[in-house]
Amino acid sequence: MSEIKKLQDGIYCKIIPLKGNPLKSINIYMVKSKGEAMIIDTGFDTEEIRKEMMDYIKDMDIDLNKTILYLTHLHSDHTGLSSWFAEDLGVDVYISDVDYQMVSAMASADSKRWKDVMEIAHMQGLDEDNLKIEEHSGYRYRPKRDFKHKSLNPGDILKVGDFTFKGLDFAGHTPGMVGLYEEDKKILFCGDHILKKITPNITFWNFETGDSLGTYLKNIEKLRDLQIEHLYSSHRELIDDVPARIDELKRHHAHRIDEALKTLEKHNECTVRDVAVGMHWDISARGFNDFPNTQKFFAAGEAHAHLEHLRAIGKADFRKDENGVLKYFKI
Predict the structure, then answer these.
(1) Is residue 72, in this structure, part of any structural domain at all?
(2) Which segments constitute the Metallo-beta-lactamase domain (predicted)?
(3) What order do you get walking across the sheet with 25-33 strand by strand?
(4) Number of domains making up the chain
(5) Is 187 left (phi over 0), alpha (psi -120 to 50) or beta?
(6) Cystine design at 186: which of 74, 109, 176, 229 (Cβ 3.0–4.6 Å)?
(7) Angle, to 10 degrees, between the axis of helix 212-220 and the axis of helix 293-312?
């Protein structure tokens, strides 16, 4: 059983393993004050993590009738047990309306959301990899039932005992990620908006969402203007120097943009897969062809986000070939 750590008065954390996933673990925070409690995120939908969460609840001796669940964003490592919390435990679940609509659309195995994921993989040129939706970690570990939610959008206030949190727009990593900021106590729960040592995956969602990387780069700058004494992110170690980490992440994406542009310069046209092959990835594999299939989804999505950013700033464009595959080129 994972250890529970007290981080400061009223703030606790349990690091729950995500076995078989490159993320390795997730930091599940709990705010406990004046008999009320808030749990932040859930981990994957597995029996093992469900037991970890139940032990967490029992060990912290919280009253579920006075407990809420807050979901920072839609990814399955953050929402996997949301329907269990809502329907089985009777806990009110808060999430932004934008990300809730996507989580809700993911519940059914044959939903349009998952068909869209495979259609995007086709457009990215991934047919040769013979990907199956069952290999996608977001599909495997998603909440399998829809659930009622309470809206927590940017600007909304959420009170838990002595804590008063305000929702902040951290879109980019997902279209509707919302952080929780406690101004008086200078506390920020930021989800995956900023992480130490690993970089948040910035992916292509759809053309309606648009330039997710541009949105992320804009929203990460918001952290410079906040007074933060305690920044609580969802994976790995906690960050001490926020401005320095922002600069590191911006340099990382500038390098990624340069990699994508150089690949376009070498060829008249490139698929998204071609660009992903030309990028450097911090993964134990000789190259893209040797990636586990679940990681090919994520790598292609990130390459695509950088290509769409190049298109947004007027340095690239694409056409669709006769099979509906996107072919990007430099302009």
Answers:
(1) yes
(2) 25-235
(3) 4-8, 11-17, 25-33, 36-40, 67-70, 92-95, 150-151
(4) 1
(5) beta
(6) 229
(7) 80
* pLDDT (0 to 100) of residue 1: 61
Q: Is residue 44 part of a domain?
A: yes
Q: Where are the beta strands (DSSP E) in the chain?
A: 4-8, 11-17, 25-33, 36-40, 67-70, 92-95, 150-151, 157-160, 163-169, 178-182, 187-191, 230-233, 316-320, 326-330
Provide the pairing of β-strand 316-320 with 326-330.
antiparallel
* Three-state secondary structure call for residue 67: strand
Amino acid at 72: T
Region label for 290, one of left (φ > 0), alpha (ψ between -120 and 50) or beta (otherwise): alpha
**Within-domain flag for 56:** yes
Q: What angle do CA 317, 319, 325 make, to 5 degrees?
A: 120
Q: Please, what is the average pLDDT of the chain?
A: 96
313 to each of 16, 122, 307, 330, how far by Cα in Å? Answer: 40, 25, 10, 12
Degrees (nearest 5) of the Cα angle 217, 220, 226?
150
User: Can you give the residue range of the structural domain that contains 100?
Assistant: 4-107+142-240
With respect to residue 297, please indicate whether it lies within any of the assigned structural domains: no
For 1-132, where are the E strands, in sequence order? 4-8, 11-17, 25-33, 36-40, 67-70, 92-95
Question: Which CATH number characterizes residue 171's domain?
Answer: 3.60.15.10
Question: What is the reported pTM?
Answer: 0.95
The structure tokens listed for 103 are 């989580």
pLDDT value of position 20: 86
Distances from the Cα of 223 to the Cα of 41, 70, 168, 246, angstroms: 21, 20, 10, 8
| Residues 6+ away with beta carbon under 8 Å from 211 | 305, 308, 309, 311, 312
269, amino acid identity: E
298 burial level (CB within 10 Å; 0-12, 13-18, 19+): buried
Helices (H) and strands (E) in the chain, counts: 10, 14
